[in-house]
Design brief:
The chain is α/β, with parallel strands linked by helices and 529 residues long. The protein has 15 helices and 16 strands.
């Protein structure tokens, strides 16, 4: 089996599977081969659509992220397969659900099997130069990249340690979001063979907890405040798995007053205080002086005020939102740097620019921060693309897409045959402006990590355009069903309620079909008649 790419590249044989690429006509394939599009894939961590102004204007202003959507497409129904950082990344690079790629959770310590096929490996063999900078978070070393530099684990916002491709480590002075962008642009400037097409993965730690802003942005948004979400004080009636989760913003055991909210004193010692001290201990003297000059007055005022009840909840919520926005400001600025570079070097017309996050995140909905659940705020993720010449789609794309779709999309845009074992669908028909009649009408989800941080129960489920069905299992056996049209906040579990028998049966059959389609062994443990 031969790779499908331009005659200028050497033809290489790799085990791609028996079926030829079906979604692309001969004319489209020839056009793609001639283009040899570059790919710039920018992924952040825990950046949610509520905090991106082309999706939601309540909180954030993200002009550079919005530029991508304005010059291309915005996906309005974009989702992940497993709302957790490492597993989500494994789904993205393999195009397969977690149970297929083998990286189901962050807690087991089992490394990602880097010997398995991934889209960067296929692109390499198709003549692409590939690079990765930033967060990898898959325990094993990256494979499939000509060049890479990654942070260990989650990485550090200040003066971070990087793992180099030769196995050495070094502390690099500066702020992580800036540094990842610096390395990426430096690689573009100094590529070995600029005649080759390239695929560059820019993977940021931002917006991951604990939202430590660059010193130049510390004072931003301090004059702004926001009301609590309508369902902030959710009681989780009829939702025992939600009630068991430890993710509440107003719970000091969940959102730590020192680690998350930065209210460090000599007398307050929380579970995560040592970790926070290690984080700020990475700062140089100038950085630490600016940090303390900003936070010390806020710390003094907070402990003096002795807030209680809803007033305290409001204070905690607003500190969280401000820190998140400050961290986001650096991210948006650096995305702007990448877009400006591509424009200045005449690369935009021949480059697909993708921006997304590894999952969504809660910004106070249900009283929460973090992710993990199949509920919409964490299941959903932003996805915008700036399209090169030759791809005609513009504006909103409403079809349901998932992060397992990225790998086949990148392969098709590079003219590479899509292996049969990839479970995602290429988005190329949508990017060409087509409206396929046979596009998927449901999505499958499976979260595996329990017991673990935040105590979110294991669950799997299926989502249609209107309904969401999920089954929580392991130390619980509980079903939930939501009508997303009439209950978009997912406050009312209608599973088993009188009058829902037909939709319940239909959604259970959808779930059965999805488990079979994606060959999830969980179907043997919980068979559906």
């Amino acid at each position: 089996m031969k790779l499908i790419y331009s005659a200028a590249a050497a033809v290489a044989a790799i085990p791609l599977g028996a079926a030829a690429l079906q979604s692309c006509s001969k004319a489209n394939a020839e056009e793609t081969e001639a283009k040899r599009y570059n790919i710039v894939y920018i992924m952040t961590d825990d950046h949610t659509a509520q905090m991106m102004s082309c999706y939601d204007k309540r909180y954030a202003h993200t002009p550079n992220l919005d530029r991508i959507a304005e010059d291309g497409v915005r996906f309005t129904n974009s989702f992940v397969a497993n709302s957790l950082s490492g597993p989500s990344r494994a789904c993205m690079v393999t195009g397969k659900h977690s149970h297929k790629n083998g990286f189901t959770d962050n807690e087991s310590g089992k490394p990602f099997d880097g010997s398995q096929p991934t889209f960067p490996k296929y692109l390499q063999q198709a003549g692409y130069e590939t690079a990765l900078f930033g967060k990898w978070h898959l325990i094993s070393d990256p494979t499939g990249f000509d060049t890479w530099r990654v942070v260990p684990g989650q990485g550090d916002y200040y003066n971070p340690t990087f793992i180099n491709q030769d196995g050495s480590t070094e502390i690099v002075p500066g702020y992580l979001t800036n540094l990842i962008t610096d390395m990426s642009l430096d690689w573009l400037d100094n590529r070995k063979d600029k005649e080759k097409p390239f695929c560059l993965l820019i993977h940021h730690k931002a917006q991951h907890r604990n939202w430590m802003a660059d010193t130049c942005n510390l004072a931003l948004y301090e004059d702004q405040s926001w009301p609590l979400p309508d369902n902030f004080f959710d009681t989780y009636e009829g939702r025992p798995a939600a009630a068991a989760a430890e993710m509440r913003i107003d719970d000091p055991m969940a959102m730590d007053i020192v680690y998350d909210l930065k209210m460090l004193t000599d007398t307050v010692n929380t579970r995560l205080t040592p970790t926070y001290k290690a984080f700020v201990g990475r700062m140089d003297s100038a950085q630490r002086a600016k940090w303390d000059a900003f936070y010390n007055p806020i710390i003094e005022e907070y402990y003096k005020s002795n807030l209680k009840g809803e007033e305290l909840a409001q204070w905690r919520f607003n500190r969280y939102i401000r820190d998140y926005l400050k961290t986001l400001k650096s991210l948006d600025d650096n995305v702007g740097r990448v877009l400006d570079y591509l424009k200045e070097h005449d690369l935009l017309d021949n480059t697909l620019v993708v921006y997304t996050s590894d999952q969504g995140f809660y910004m106070g909905e249900h009283g929460w921060f973090d992710k993990r659940f199949m509920y919409e705020e964490s299941f959903n993720t932003p996805l915008v693309m700036r399209l090169p010449k030759g791809l005609k789609a513009r504006g909103d794309i409403q079809q349901m897409v998932q992060n397992i779709d990225y790998a086949p999309t990148f392969l098709e845009i590079a003219g590479v045959e899509i292996p049969e074992d990839i479970q995602g669908e290429s988005l190329m028909p949508l990017l060409r402006g087509e409206n396929p009649a046979d596009w998927r009408d449901q999505l499958y989800y499976h979260y595996h990590e329990y017991p673990a941080e935040h105590s979110v129960k294991r669950h799997y489920g299926v989502r249609s355009d209107r309904y969401s069905l999920m089954h929580f299992y392991n130390d619980i056996d509980h079903w939930e069903l939501y009508d997303l049209q009439n209950d978009p906040q997912q406050m009312h579990n209608i599973y088993g309620k009188p009058g829902t028998e037909q939709v319940t049966a239909e959604m259970r059959q959808r779930l059965k079909k999805a488990m079979e389609q994606y060959d999830d062994p969980i179907r043997n443990q919980f068979p559906i008649d």
